[in-house]
Specification:
Layout lengths: L1 H4 L9 E8 L6 E2 L7 E3 L1 H13 L4 E7 L18 H13 L4 E6 L21 H18 L3 E4 L6 H11 L6 E8 L6 H6 L19 H13 L3 E5 L5 H10 L4 E4 L2 H12 L5 H15 L3 E3 L3 H9 L4
Parallel strand pairs: 1-3, 1-4, 1-10, 4-5, 5-6, 6-7, 7-8, 8-9, 9-10
Antiparallel strand pairs: 2-3
The chain binds ligand PBG.
């Protein structure tokens, strides 16, 4: 009876798998703070994409991890057509074609030696407008590599509009933009730093949002839509379900939520200690995010949950 009258359902197609691919490795490297998640080799990434597809997952969000020596102040590897992310997009595309939606993180922090999402001005602050020029170039190389959706995640003002123009200029009108609309400056990104080998100097408070603010997200939402966002996202997910609910009731574009590294790590750590029921906790967090209004959820559990849903275990 509960199953029959359930108001919220979770399906494999609701899920998007974020995945890391690291340059220059021959074996996958486990991420200690995210048990079960690895930095992929080019080869294991292709396999992970196939596995996700077979589990019914609808998309994969790719993050590139360049060799340390290739990180610099401008994040040059992010716009190199032979940079790891661009190579990985082509690899995944060759493997799964258009059956899986291929998405890419459009941000500089994986490629900068200072770990910020943009380039810095003379005072060491992120320079918004100079960063936008880098993002425009990134969007173009990612689109050239064959990505279906770009995800500008740096929270620079005007990023969606600049990326839209850059894509249209090179005839990539059909590449969509998943806007990180409401992205909060969060402690829960912690494990991600290890995942992308980033040693951030300082914090992101000059460009990411204050957890105390909700109305600010509605302003970000209006701007992103005006600039041409095709889909919008709230991130992190769990601590911001009210923001998600409000965004979802205010728009008619698809709404996504990103269950981030720290949300994953918390459940895995508590489960490892035997303090919570891992499976139930995972499904409860995802159901909560769906109930709050996300149509799509980026989660590191995507493939596993997709498999379990397909097997009828939930
Ligand atoms: C920026 C980016 C971050 C995440 C996704 N894109 C890091 C940040 O903004 O600090 C975090 C994802 C996660 O924690 O799982 N490139």
């Amino acid at each position: 009876m509960r199953r029959m009258v359930a108001e919220t359902r979770l399906q494999p197609a609701d899920l998007i798998l974020p995945a890391f691919v690291r340059e220059g490795i021959t074996e996958p490297v486990p991420i200690a703070a995210m048990p079960g998640v690895v930095q992929h080799t080019r080869d294991t990434l292709r396999k992970a994409a196939v596995e996700a597809l077979e589990a019914g997952v609808s998309g994969i969000m790719l993050f590139g991890v360049p060799e340390d020596a290739k990180k610099d102040a401008a994040g040059t590897a992010g716009t190199d057509p032979e940079g790891i992310l661009q190579v990985a997009i082509r690899d995944v595309k060759a493997e799964v074609g258009d059956d899986l939606v291929i998405m890419s993180d459009l941000c500089l922090d994986e490629y900068t030696d200072h770990g910020h999402c943009g380039v810095l001005d003379g005072d060491g602050r992120v320079d918004n407008d100079a960063t936008l020029e880098r993002y425009a170039e990134m969007a173009q190389v990612q689109a050239d590599a064959g990505v279906h959706v770009v995800g500008p995640s740096g929270m620079m003002d005007g990023q969606v509009g600049v990326v839209r123009d850059a894509l249209d200029t090179i005839g990539k009108e059909d590449v969509s933009i998943l806007a990180y609309t409401a992205k909060y400056s969060s402690a829960f990104y912690g494990p991600f730093r290890e995942a992308v080998g980033s040693s951030l100097q300082g914090d992101r408070k000059t460009y990411q949002q204050d957890p105390a603010n909700l109305r600010e997200s509605m302003r970000e939402l209006a701007l992103d839509l005006e600039e041409g966002a095709d889909m919008v996202m709230v991130k992190p997910a769990g601590p911001y379900l009210d923001v998600l609910a409000k965004v979802a009731e205010s728009v008619d574009v698809p709404v996504a939520a990103y269950q981030i590294s720290g949300e994953y790590a918390m459940v895995e750590a508590a489960a490892e200690k035997g303090w919570i029921d891992r499976d139930r906790a995972i499904f409860e967090t995802l159901t909560g995010i769906r109930r709050a209004g996300a149509q799509m959820i980026l989660t590191y559990w995507a493939t596993e949950v997709g498999q379990k849903l397909s097997a009828g275990r939930r």
